[in-house]
Design a protein that fits this description.
Layout (H helix, E strand, L loop, with lengths): L1 H6 L4 H26 L2 H12 L1 H24 L10 H9 L8
């Protein structure tokens, strides 16, 4: 799913912005619901409903950032990504000459 979102043009900064905007929208929806409906319980439910969007946007942002970093590292290695390499070669490229020892 993350690869598809990345191919569609979505980037991590867009998801982080949507997460921050949803936090602001939570406060706005709570205040407006409280003002127009007069019921604090209903206003709380609206605020909680919208407030649950933010972690989803932030999680998608993290996933997209990982995909962006993987895509950038694949481009810098002549187009060969980590998935297409042998495990030892991928480890040596990732850590340079300081390949961690396996226990």
């Amino acid at each position: 799913m993350i690869k598809t979102l990345h191919k569609m043009g979505l980037r991590s900064h867009m998801m982080y912005t949507a997460g921050m905007a949803s936090i602001g929208f939570t406060v706005v929806s709570w205040v407006l619901s409280k003002e127009y409906e007069g019921d604090i319980a209903r206003a709380d439910r609206w605020g909680l409903f919208v407030g649950e969007w933010a972690p989803t946007f932030f999680a998608l942002g993290v996933g997209l950032r990982i995909e962006e970093m993987r895509h950038e590292s694949g481009m810098s290695m002549g187009g060969q990504g980590y998935e297409e390499m042998m495990p030892d070669e991928a480890m040596s490229r990732r850590y340079g000459s300081r390949t961690p020892t396996r226990i």
